[in-house]
């Protein structure tokens, strides 16, 4: 396994009186796609939100290339080079697609070559470039949400269930775009319930249960072992 770009060591997160993360330990290798898997409600989204500082860790350490994230304010974490695609997409509906993309860049105007690459990956962005984002379909909004995270090259991408509720044709477009990002050597931590997507993209897998990582290893190993899938998640990759 390559050197970790992100390390979580015993991360504990409480939300109100609820204990959500109960000691998450996880390494995300540089230049690979790590799939964060598990049943609903086990803490996957909370893990990503804790990395971004949207929920504060009560205990444990989060290290980005060895840098302790604890003292870094929420407003500065994206500036460290983290691209975040939240589950709720978080687009600005009253702004155009172009304006949403401009807001996602930190180093000046959107690079034309990068824009054209995103147009090729997500053709509807070109079609609706000057349209208000609120007028897009659900699948088009998800494309925009992912494209914003990809507006510039990032050190790390955190992506929360990008294919949830989408039609198969749109899922195929998403997978193609993320494959291209992976081919560029991107480091990605991705929550995904569609296990066929996880198998298509993932190099590594980490399975969560009850607020902790209970298994971590090669995605290929998990894909090849239906009994392990059933034990960890109650379902089979082959069935999805």
Automatic annotation (TrEMBL):
Organism: Citreimonas salinaria
InterPro entries: AAA+_ATPase, ABC_transporter-like_ATP-bd, ABC_transporter-like_CS, BCAA_Transport_ATP-bd_LivF, P-loop_NTPase
Keyword list, A-Z: Amino-acid transport, ATP-binding, Nucleotide-binding, Transport
PROSITE patterns: ABC_TRANSPORTER_1, ABC_TRANSPORTER_2
Family matches, as Pfam families: ABC_tran
Domain of life: Bacteria
Protein family per UniProt: Belongs to the ABC transporter superfamily.
The name this protein goes by in its record: Amino acid/amide ABC transporter ATP-binding protein 2, HAAT family
Molecular function as annotated in GO: ATP binding; ATP hydrolysis activity; branched-chain amino acid transmembrane transporter activity
GO biological process, any: L-amino acid transport
Domain ABC transporter: residue ranges: 6-235
């Amino acid at each position: 396994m390559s050197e970790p770009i992100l390390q979580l060591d015993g991360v504990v997160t409480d939300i109100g009186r609820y204990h959500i993360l109960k000691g998450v330990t996880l390494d995300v290798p540089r230049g690979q796609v790590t799939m964060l898997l598990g049943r609903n409600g086990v803490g996957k989204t909370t893990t990503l939100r804790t990395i971004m500082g949207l929920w504060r860790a009560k205990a444990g350490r989060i290290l980005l290339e060895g840098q302790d994230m604890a003292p870094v304010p929420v407003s500065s974490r994206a500036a460290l080079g983290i691209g975040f695609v939240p589950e709720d997409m978080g687009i600005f509906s009253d702004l155009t697609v172009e304006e949403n993309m401009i807001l996602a860049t930190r180093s000046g105007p959107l690079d034309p070559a990068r824009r054209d690459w995103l147009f090729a990956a997500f053709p509807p962005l070109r079609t609706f470039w000057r349209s208000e984002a609120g007028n897009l379909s659900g699948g088009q909004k998800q494309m925009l949400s992912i494209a914003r995270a990809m507006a510039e090259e990032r050190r790390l991408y955190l992506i929360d269930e990008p294919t949830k509720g989408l039609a198969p044709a749109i899922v195929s477009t998403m997978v193609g775009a993320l494959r291209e990002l992976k081919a560029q050597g991107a480091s990605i931590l991705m929550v995904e319930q569609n296990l066929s997507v996880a198998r298509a993209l993932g190099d590594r897998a980490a399975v969560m249960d009850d607020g902790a990582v209970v298994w971590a290893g090669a995605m290929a190993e998990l894909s090849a072992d239906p009994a392990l899938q059933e034990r960890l998640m109650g379902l089979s990759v082959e069935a999805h």
